[in-house]
Write a structure and sequence with these properties.
about 100 residues, alpha+beta, Alpha-Beta Plaits, 3-stranded antiparallel β-sheet, 3 strands, about 35% helix
Length: about 100
């Protein structure tokens, strides 16, 4: 499996992660949700609390538009330094 890295500056991610964080902090998964819309809601929720975040989803799920099951899941990643706070905030989310 490939190692995850922060999206680079200028790639449109706008995640606010510094160049130093790119080098020193591997991203940490703080939760998984079903579907890209829920993934973007979770990412926005964390970013509104000042926590840089990005989403990763399965390529096959994106190609075929899957939003549930193993191919429709979206993982939410934050810098390791924000992981505890992000997990606490992520626990407050409900997509029922």
């Amino acid at each position: 499996m490939a190692q995850l890295v922060w999206p680079q500056e200028g790639d449109g991610a706008g995640n606010g992660v510094s160049a130093e964080q790119h080098e020193t902090q591997p991203p940490v998964c703080v939760g998984v949700v079903d579907g890209p819309i829920n993934g973007e809601i979770a990412r926005s929720f964390l970013e509104s609390a000042g926590i840089p975040a990005f989403v990763q989803r399965d390529t096959l799920g994106a190609i075929y538009g899957l939003t549930t099951g193993s191919y429709g899941r979206v993982a939410i990643f934050v810098p390791a330094a924000f992981a505890d706070e992000a997990r606490a905030l992520f626990a407050e989310l409900s997509f029922d």
